[in-house]
Amino acid sequence: MKALLRGRVKVDKNWAALYRAALDFFRTFPGLISILLIKILLFLLYISNTMSKNRTVFLVDDDTDDQDFFKSALQTIDNSAFLLSAFNGEHALELINGGNVDPDIVFLDLNMPRMNGAELLVELRRMESFDLIPIILYSTSSERSAIIECMQLGANDYLVKPNKFETLIVEIRTVMDKYLK
């Protein structure tokens, strides 16, 4: 509820308009009924956001086969999730700076041309809008030094890309349950 009050929860435009109207009503007619109305709206908004599963997942990976593999696993886990993809770090920044990306969680491949996952991670962590968004490195590299470096740069987690589809489903589900509940 505190995140909602601080504006850190993504809200539907209709709910936002209703909330603004309730605040205007409260300012015009301060009193117990207005306070009660705002509390009810906040509660409904909070419930709506916690129950809504329409998650936006942002995947940055240069390998289209890996993107398709990830998309299939995500659809198996949650077919209401929206997957947005970029093919490298520069492309991801273009989408973000263009206002086309508002993810709930980000998965970054580590080894990409032009701007790799670690470089993009640094750029994302510099952006205030990505302060609270989980960023997961998702790579074929299982080198301990790479994992430690990414965690020190601000990654929330690190997944080694599995070869089996069932394993990928379990890993994505585990990460999403951990960071999006």
Description:
The protein is α/β, with parallel strands linked by helices and 181 residues long. It folds into two domains: 2-51; 56-180, Rossmann fold (3-Layer(aba) Sandwich), CATH 3.40.50.2300. Helix content is 55%, strand content 13%. The protein contains eight helices and five strands. The chain has helices at 2-5, 13-28, 32-51, 64-77, 89-97, 117-126, 144-153, 165-180, and strands at residues 56-60, 82-86, 105-108, 135-139, 157-160. The protein has a five-stranded parallel sheet, with helices on both faces. Helix 2 (13-28) runs antiparallel to helix 3, helix 4 crosses helix 8 (165-180) and helix 5 packs parallel to helix 6. The two termini are 14 Å apart.
Topology:
Layout: H1 2-5, H2 13-28, H3 32-51, E1 56-60, H4 64-77, E2 82-86, H5 89-97, E3 105-108, H6 117-126, E4 135-139, H7 144-153, E5 157-160, H8 165-180
Parallel strand pairs: 1-2, 1-3, 3-4, 4-5
Helix pairs in contact: 2-3, 4-8, 5-6
